[in-house]
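Sharing a chain and its predicted structure for anyone who wants a worked example. Both blocks are below, sequence first, tokens second.
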Amino acid sequence: MEEIADVTDITDITDVSESAVRAAREVRVVFSRLRRRMRESYDPGDLTPSQTSVLSRLDKDGEASVSDLAAAERVRHQSVAATIGVLEDRGLVSRRPDPQDGRRQLIFVTESGHAFLEDRRRAGEGWLTRALEDNCTEAERRTVIEAAALLERVTRS
């Protein structure tokens, strides 16, 4: 559910090399497939992608109000409220009063929620570790590490 804020139509780009266009396409396709395969490596625990996205956002960004989450997820307040209700029923998130504004509630990830996310991350990373070990040479794994550093630099530009 992660979205890019500034999306440029590739047809509007006229002064880029063919290799840049091909690299962008290849990275997009490979990352899409990689995400799908990593998701297959763990039990989603009956969470929808939207529920998982909200839980992950809270884990990454810290506590937030339902309104803040709705804006960040680019969905309606009511949708996030329903999502939070499910996550709360599962014991993955909880609420507390906002110390700055007693009328608001802040949503935060519980210990169970952190454990749930950590189990998912461990399962995905475990699958990928095994796949890299079984299918790549040491030199190829070093190339993957170097490529990851390059892609990290691109994301920071």
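Comments welcome. The chain has a mean pLDDT of 89.
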